From TrEMBL:
GO BP: fatty acid beta-oxidation
Protein known as: 3-hydroxyacyl-CoA dehydrogenase
GO MF, one example: 3-hydroxybutyryl-CoA dehydrogenase activity
InterPro entries the record matches: 3-OHacyl-CoA_DH_NAD-bd, 3HC_DH_C, 6-PGluconate_DH-like_C_sf, 6PGD_dom2, NAD(P)-bd_dom_sf
Residues covered by the 3-hydroxyacyl-CoA dehydrogenase NAD binding domain: 132-310
Residue intervals passing through the bilayer: none
Domain 3-hydroxyacyl-CoA dehydrogenase C-terminal span(s) in chain numbering: 10-103, 313-409
Family of this protein: Belongs to the 3-hydroxyacyl-CoA dehydrogenase family.
Pfam families, alphabetized: 3HCDH, 3HCDH_N
Pathway: Lipid metabolism; butanoate metabolism
């Protein structure tokens, strides 16, 4: 693939993703800081999308999108009005000293506060007291969340369906801590202290005194609503009930409780002990002190919290998976091989991996399910899952976990 072709295919994939991030900001769905932090810490990208638009130049991005829109007619490619508005104000990006962000001087990369900069977090008197944490679930995500809180010093009561699963959670955390001790990342005393904060149970009644309960069970609305109905019975007044769902409406879970103001989304990323991002998802009824408490709690567990409203995909998945789906379409249309497209994106935009390598890591079945959820939520024809993605899933080529996806792997 020539240098020109590499730049063309990379830009064709990345510019619509940038436009989608601009739309999120324009609609007030999330702040510029949270959108950028979401993609940096949720996907490992070197820069957030709005910072990238500032670097490239808003006028350049706008014009490139206009050309793409003329070619495709896809509404996702139509430049967002805020690009025109900012350009008209002279806020054309970093080179001008202002774009989505304001900079110390034209050409500087130092961001300085402006009228859109979020206010500093308030004092702790506006948050609820969280001294004990409960976790429901025994899978990889639940186990990771238990470890995150225990390592941050919180006593954690976790509930699994059977004693075998309770024991498996503790054993998994213990093995991970042993490896950390062997590598010198923690001491034996610290590891033993973490294990000492764990209490396993098979009854949800064990959560009666928890200040915060996080569920990390099957991504099934019926299973989750049954759980939230029971947590409403079990948990004390004022306890915060959090869901780690990545796709289901948080409001639907809040609706089966008598305390919708206490229900919030806390979308951790896998593996939870390693990934720093947590998406805090608010419903129309979530109390402000609940949001403030969860944001403070994330900071205390060394996580990076970002806030958004309750709709499919939240920040990260809503931006990431349409880009991945577009990459599959580009492959179908003959713009290059999976390897060529991956190399182009990595070379031209400094992403840590290309879209096909990432699809294979995530799992093609997971990617297809999320893409279908986004299509159901937003209804854009451009979100219809690419046919080759569907075909790979139907053939059992799910990515690294099966040894082949868009790429092939050796054991």
């Amino acid at each position: 693939m020539s240098a020109t072709a590499s730049r063309t295919i990379a830009d064709t994939l990345v510019y619509p993703y940038l436009n989608h991030a601009v739309a999120m900001y324009e609609e007030g769905y999330a702040s510029r800081e949270d959108i950028d932090a979401g993609m940096r810490f949720g996907c490992g990208l070197p820069r957030g999308p709005l910072a990238v638009v500032d670097e490239l130049g808003l006028d350049r991005v706008r014009d490139a999108l206009a050309e793409l829109y003329a070619q495709t007619g896809d509404v996702r490619h139509e430049p967002r009005p805020v690009l025109d508005a900012l350009v008209a104000q002279g806020r054309t990006g970093r080179a001008a000293g202002a774009g989505f962000y304001t900079y110390a001087a034209p050409g500087s990369d130092e961001v300085v506060p402006d009228e859109s900069t979020p206010a500093p977090a308030g004092a702790d008197e506006h948050v609820r007291t969280v001294e004990t944490v409960g976790v429901v679930g025994s899978g990889t995500m639940a186990t990771g969340i238990v470890q995150v809180f225990a390592q941050a010093g919180y006593p954690v009561t976790y509930v699994a369906r059977t004693q075998d699963k309770v024991d498996a959670v503790r054993s998994s955390i213990s093995r991970g801590l042993d490896r950390s001790v062997e590598k010198g990342r923690t001491t034996r005393e610290e590891a033993d202290a973490v294990l000492g904060r764990l209490t396993g149970a098979t009854s949800r009644d064990a959560l009666a005194d928890a200040d915060l309960v996080v569920e990390a069970i099957a991504e099934d609305i019926d299973v989750k609503t049954e759980l939230f109905t029971d947590l409403d019975r079990v948990c004390r007044d004022g306890a915060i009930l959090a869901t780690t769902t990545s796709s289901l409406p948080v409001a639907d879970l809040a609706a089966v409780t008598s305390r919708p103001q206490d229900v919030v989304g806390m979308h951790f990323f896998n593996p939870a002990p390693v990934m720093r991002l947590v998406e805090i998802v608010r419903t129309d009824q979530t109390a402000q002190d609940v949001l403030d408490t969860v944001r403070t709690l994330c900071a205390r567990t060394r996580k990076v919290p970002v806030s958004c409203a309750d709709r499919s995909g939240f920040i990260v998945n809503a931006l990431l998976f349409p880009y991945l789906n577009d990459a599959v379409r580009a492959l179908e249309e003959g713009h290059g091989s999976a390897e060529d497209i991956d190399a182009a994106v990595v070379a031209e935009h400094e992403y840590p991996m290309g879209p096909f390598a990432l699809l294979d890591v995530v799992g093609l079945d997971v990617s297809l399910a999320i893409q279908r959820e986004l299509l159901a939520e937003f209804g854009h024809p451009g979100l219809v899952p690419a046919q080759r993605l569907v075909e790979h899933v139907e053939a059992g080529r799910l990515g690294r976990k099966t040894g082949s996806g868009f790429l092939t792997y050796t054991k």
